[in-house]
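Reviewer has doubts. Consider these tokens.
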Amino acid sequence: MSIFLHQNDLPDNVSLGKSIAIDTETKGLNLNRDRLCLIQLSDGNGDAHLVQIAAEKKQKSPNIEALLKDETVEKLFHFARFDLAVLMRDISPVLGPIYCTKIASKLARTYSDRHGLKELCSELLSIELSKQQQSTDWGSEVLSEAQKNYAASDVLFLHRLKVKLSEQLRREGRLEIAQHCFDFLAHRVALDLAGFEDLDIFHH
């Protein structure tokens, strides 16, 4: 495994193929307050690219923008709702097919109420993740090795989890409804960014 750290954008010579795992780290979980600090990307082959986003955001991120807008590239997330909102707010629209392992887990693993990335990696891949760096200062100009390893772990296994979860969804006849949920994410994120994040639009 190799972890590559970049500033504000992916280098021109980095190509990640047609299926990319993406995650973000922010200063907090409030879309109206907390800025984007880090974007993690992986093509599933064991390497992770971490892109630090400067607080003043004077520099654009054209390569990441192009990647996010590429409708031929599948984007894999764990809890896509938040990551998509942050990316759409601070970088660009996210186009193309979306797959969310948290949604897939909730529809496939109905025998459990534990759908975090740590639990999925442990059960489905026999990989134990450390979450000690989950609550840390991602806005720091210099990231520790522990932070970099933690950030990389959020994207390194999503391709393998997609395979396992899709197998369960297919077996249980829920692959189509999962796809409908993935397709609805863009609308759910638009509501979040418009200030309706706490509204259950289907509630009576």
Notes: The chain has one domain: 2-196. The first strand starts at residue 2 and ends at 7. The chain has a mean pLDDT of 95. Helices lie at 62-69, 80-90, 101-108, 117-125, 145-156, 158-171, 175-196.
